[in-house]
Amino acid sequence: MARAATTSDVFNAIAEPQRRDILALLRAGERPVNDLARTLGMTQPGASKHLRVLREVGLVQVREAGKQRLYGLDARGLRPVHEWVGGFERFWNESFDRLDSYVQDLKQTRQED
Amino acid sequence: MARAATTSDVFNAIAEPQRRDILALLRAGERPVNDLARTLGMTQPGASKHLRVLREVGLVQVREAGKQRLYGLDARGLRPVHEWVGGFERFWNESFDRLDSYVQDLKQTRQED
DNA sequence: TTGACGTATGCCGATATGGGAATACGATCG
DNA sequence: CGATCGTATTCCCATATCGGCATACGTCAA
């Protein structure tokens, strides 16, 4: 039941570093599998497997080109992620401040001991 | 070796829906574990385990308060995620267009058959 | 100290994952 | 058709994960 209910959603897909690498690489344009694999230093089956996951969540799109299959980026699925994370934007600096004051409190307390 | 080299990074931490729920909830302020667990409908050990993961990647911060432990949000770790995903912002609409024209091509081709 | 409460940890089972190797599939070319 | 190239799939192993349950730990109160 590992990572239950998460399997095959976008958050899960981008949780794997190699898949993030693939996506980043595809920003430069479509690429056949072997090319991807070689560029990123993974085996062909390895690349195929990761591409499958990315395909299943819709982050990637395939196009047949002779013997080859050109994988291209379809970044639309990343938008919800961006929005979800963006919902915390307000707290980035605030957390900073809160932690700072927290540390201040600790110092204070320590001095009082 | 599941999710190799990913374990305990922020992307992995937010890949789990319940952990995202916890983070979202903590935007409203600090909360003790039992409270979190009850609110989100998970068991206490379950909540503790997820909180541990969040703690280990630094998305959450603990403060002792008597018998209780108050967990608070530290969203700073989400910033890199936001930036990484933001690197694809340009492609959201572009992908749209490309897919559209791709679909057009398919229709065209089909008509020519 | 004992007991109660809040929380963390340990152990277990079921499942899923990533990696490697072998192989099957599909298309092109001779 | 047969051979070859590019890719997907399958099988197996090691490992990690989540969930549930029991239990240990720490703090406070009586």
UniProtKB/TrEMBL annotation, chains A, B:
Residues 1-93 form the HTH arsR-type domain. SMART domains: HTH_ARSR (SM00418). It comes from Streptomyces mangrovisoli. GO terms for molecular function: DNA-binding transcription factor activity. Pfam families: HTH_5. This is Transcriptional regulator.
